[in-house]
Specification:
This protein is mainly α and 147 residues long. The chain has a domain at 31-58 and 72-138. 64% of the residues lie in helices and 0% in strands. It contains 4 helices and no strands.
Amino acid sequence: MTAPSHSGAPSGDYRSAPTGGSAWANGGAVFAGVLMIVNGFLAVFQGVAAISKDDVYARIGNYVYKINLTGWGWILLVLGVIAVIAGAGILSGAGWARGVGIVLASLSLMAQFLFLPYAPVWSVIMMAIDVFVIWALATYEPRTTGR
């Protein structure tokens, strides 16, 4: 007996994965752009609060990475402004924005780690969001239109 022939069966040729990446990565990149804009504005507000009043955040004793809260305010303000610009670039599809977004999310991750003693819960939340943004932008492959 011979096995029945299935006309819909694969013939042995394997196709490569789609060039557009997974739906999670594509949707994640858009979500990462939105998160970067929102986090940028929140970092600007956080920085302004630290610059205007040094008593907004908890005072800590001996901390290895102790920086004046005004200094932290300026760091957060600058990172926030750049995050808003990069997030807008990601949403508009600018090629430079993906690399800038990964670098910026990495810097934000380090800054939030160093800011842990001042606002521990908020810093942990921001660090988790930064990790997601890095993943989403690193795995995203924009679709190229073939001509």
